[in-house]
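Suppose you are handed a protein chain with no further information: no name, no annotation, nothing but its sequence. What can you learn? This example shows the usual starting point.
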Amino acid sequence: MLPLLKALLLTLSLWSLLPATAAPISRDDPESTYPDRKGTSSASGSAVVVTANPLASAEALAVLKEGGSSIDALVTAQAVLAVVEPQSSGLAGGGFLLHWDAKQRRLVVLDGREVAPERSQPDDLLDASGDPLPWRQATAQANAIGVPGTVALLWEAHQRHGHLSWGRTLQPAIRLANAGFLPSPRLLRSIRLAQRFGVSHSPDFQEIYLPGGQPPPAAQLFRNPALAQTLRQLARKGGPTFYQGPLAQQILRGINELQASEPNFRGWTPADLSNYDVVRRAPLCNQQLQHRICTMPPPSSGGLALLQTLALLNQSTDLPSSSAGKPKVWRQLARAQAWADADRLYWVHDPLDGAIPTEALLDQAYIARRARAMQSANGLRPTPGLPLGIENYPYGVPDRGIEHGTSQITIVDAGGNIASYTSSVETIFGSRHLVAGMVLNNQLTDFAFKPSLGNKPVANRRLPGRRPMSSMAPTLVFSNGEPVLALGSPGGRSIPHLLSRVLLASLAWNEPPARAVALPHLSSRGKTLVLESDPPLPWPFPLQQLKSEASLRRQGIGSGTALVRRIEAGWQGAADPRREGTALALP
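A reasonable first move is to predict its three-dimensional structure. Written in structure tokens, the prediction is:
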């Protein structure tokens, strides 16, 4: 066994001795920060891996050491996370990838977002009276499960950019699922939280994650033989077997068996799986903070919100002279977050349903007009703007969405190829339904529950074959045409809030990666401004100086930023200390 892996296993065994307690349930923060953090994990070298779990980072680094590409390492890391961090991402979820091909000098976006099955109806998450189901109840519905895209995305990326065999990249996950691993405190807390959230609808979840009604013992190896078998099938037959063939048939049987307990669920057809396609999209890029920032386009709204937030902030603050110690820039950041949210939650939807005015929403004249309105709002709640060239508002104004169980992987290999990848199963452990050992997502709760409001359709309404709006925003930053920074984060609707603050720290305040990810966060949420309590690094000024027209609330903010930045000798990575993330590097 590699010495590094032995050391990490020893670390995990020590973790298992610590108490694991469930966190309070909140729609905005359903999973608390990691309470036993020891400091920010950072590493520098010719190649860097940053993931949300030490085992995933160690196995991905081993792949790079064998000559694997950033995509090989990504496949390994995501497969391992499906085993050791199933509460956040997995094979039956979805994700977005930004990949920089250093040789071709090309940035490509792969959209592996979940899709609504063909029998979906716009009112699937409404009750008999036409009112939205309570959010917690909706997360457990079979109608909330989208056709997964993770395996298709990983397969397509590997076919184009992999150096090692597909089977080799899955071997670590197979071994961990079969032989077992020591569950981390975060996993055990997540299981307890899911238990409080509601798992009575899923006997499979209870059997695997709550044997005898309790989470697995901390000091005992945890195994998932059903997931090991699924991974073996994928290793032997490739990614397409997830969508056509025996594994696809097993998934369909498991999904459609849910009809017995949920009569309103109409089930999936074989075509729902066989017709799934990964979509190659053009990245959404904009010049901000003296860099070219490229991020995820629709159906994610996170990239648009990130770029709009920075643009609005730049209009209202002298960023070159700003610093973390000035409360004014934090106040303006919170306002910019709120105004960017108003636009993205109104305008973004699946591009299949028509063009989205992303360029117009980032136009300098439009941003200047929005910034003036933002400064003169006097505490009024922001409303969506009307971009140039659009004469009226075509949609109803929806409620804000929620997105929780998410993970980030950022990798650069020795050849300079970069993968920034955000994946999710939505709420903690997704729907809590399992098939073939895999946690099934509940991503379709990201659609607006009500398909129309005020006699107008909601842009992000649920329709067959559509991908729900997301907040995920994997991002690459360029200077003079060269990539200098790659990052992404979980955090649900707050993802663009978190990333805008990290980019501000990195590019305007020139903070090194470890400080950039560990500085405090704030998040504008409706009429409330949430200030992070007990951040890894203290607030740089007394919080009473952070006056705001919104009501203030202090609480934990469970970000998980994975950041990699170019330095003179190569690259430096840092993992957000709010989770169990680990950064590792090759010399």
